[in-house]
Design brief:
Strand content: 5-15%
Largest sheet: 7 strands, mixed
Radius of gyration: 26 Å
Distance between the termini: 78 Å
Number of helices: 20
């Protein structure tokens, strides 16, 4: 029995990056031997075990053979005669196909270290094209390591393009796709993920609504970058720079989908794009079964982001409707995330990344003013039921009028 550290742990150590998760592969062992040593089995499809003390994952060396469509269409074979090189060749990228023993002796049959130095994301073997999920994984790695200068090798990009055109991407489950998308959006340069997907043709398969934004112009006075797709990538980049959570990043990606529906004869204006885009945002949300908080914020940002930009001009009654739509009284965090998305949208414009966004504090102040209305005095006056609701609304409107007057003074 020989045990090797494999994959990301080896890659990140060689890159000088922190190693968080460690995966191990066991060569020359059987399931029975692993159980006898106290390992706990967890793999449903192939033998993976948890170490009795550390809880880290140990997998028996295995080979795989394609026998169907999609991510799950594989037959796995694990036995003591599977070599380390046979196990490594089934991995996605050369930089993930290295192993080291307990003395840090490197096994690198597919030149992963050379590609690390060349800053290349290159597939290990033609079997790469058997797993459509790898298109998303490579794009995610491109986003993760963009800051180090990594790019996708031309021959790997071509394989990704073939996969995108083959129909295999449609076989991916929403859960597997969302897991990769969510992880990619939380990388330091998530816009690179979208760029790589677009370059290989996967974006128009997975998110045609986002792909449709590229080449659609906006008024140069408001958007010096002009192209709506370029703007969307810039908004996503700003969200990462400002360490926004996944909910905000997802909303940033989808906020302008309605502009892809504008007839060319109406360009560069996009009248009512906020409402037109809601059905598209809903479709993307459902396609990937995004978490409820991501779905809700994306729809609200899509509908109201121009309200956010015009906050200082809004009538108190419109401001109250906005606050009600977000239920700022019970869900203040969601409104805070809306403000963040609006600010990222404003900053995601060429040359305007550092411009201040006074709307943010104004909206926070409005929410505070509305929340300051006390219900108890109204109860003591005898209001109840629908009448109480109307009385609260009147008092909140009064508070917002006073707030707006004070802010304008």
């Amino acid at each position: 029995m020989q045990i090797y550290k494999v994959g990301g742990a080896v890659r990140d150590r060689l890159l000088g990056k922190p190693v968080t998760d460690i995966d191990w592969v066991v060569v020359g062992a059987t399931t029975e031997e692993m159980l006898a040593k106290g390992f706990r089995p967890v793999g449903a499809d192939f033998p993976v075990f948890l170490h009795p003390k550390s809880g880290e994952e140990y997998a028996l060396a295995r080979t795989e053979r394609k026998n169907g469509r999609g991510y799950g269409g594989f037959i796995f074979h694990a036995s003591p005669d599977v070599t380390l090189e046979e196990d490594l060749i089934r991995r996605d990228l050369t930089i993930n196909a290295m192993a080291e023993d307990d003395q840090q002796n490197l096994t690198d049959p597919y030149h992963g270290q050379r590609d690390l130095e060349a800053r290349l994301l290159r597939h290990v073997s033609p079997a790469f094209a058997e797993d459509p999920l790898r298109v998303l994984r490579v794009a995610r790695f491109a986003a993760r390591y963009a800051e180090l200068g990594f790019t996708v090798a031309a021959e790997t990009l071509e394989l990704m393009r073939q996969l995108s055109e083959s129909g295999e991407l449609e076989a991916l489950t929403p859960e597997r796709s969302w897991k990769e998308i969510a992880r990619a959006l939380m990388e330091d340069q998530p816009q690179v993920f979208i760029e790589v997907l677009r370059e290989c043709g996967a974006l128009k398969v997975l998110m045609p609504e986002v792909d449709a934004l590229f080449g659609v112009p906006q008024p140069a006075a408001h958007h010096p970058e002009i192209d709506t797709g370029v703007h969307t990538l810039s908004v996503l980049e700003q969200a990462a720079l400002h360490k926004q959570p996944l909910t905000v990043r997802w909303a940033c990606l989808l906020h302008d989908l309605g502009k892809g529906l504008t007839p060319e004869e109406e360009w560069p204006r996009h009248i009512a794009h906020e409402h037109k885009g809601l059905k598209l945002i809903k479709a993307v949300n459902e396609r990937f079964r995004a978490p409820k908080d991501c779905q809700e914020l994306a729809l609200l940002v899509g509908k109201y982001h121009t309200h956010g930009h015009r906050a200082l001009e809004l009538k108190p009654s419109t401001l109250l409707e906005l606050l009600q739509s977000f239920d700022v009284y019970r869900r203040p965090q969601r409104f805070e995330e809306f403000i963040a998305a609006c600010e990222m949208d404003a900053r995601g414009r060429k040359g305007l990344e550092q411009r201040s966004y006074p709307q943010a504090d104004y909206l926070r102040g409005a929410a505070t003013a509305a929340r300051s209305v006390a219900v108890q005095p109204l109860l003591e006056k005898g209001f109840k039921g629908p009448e109480l609701g109307e009385a609260i609304k009147r008092e909140r409107l009064k508070a917002l009028k006073a707030y707006k007057e004070a802010a304008s003074a």
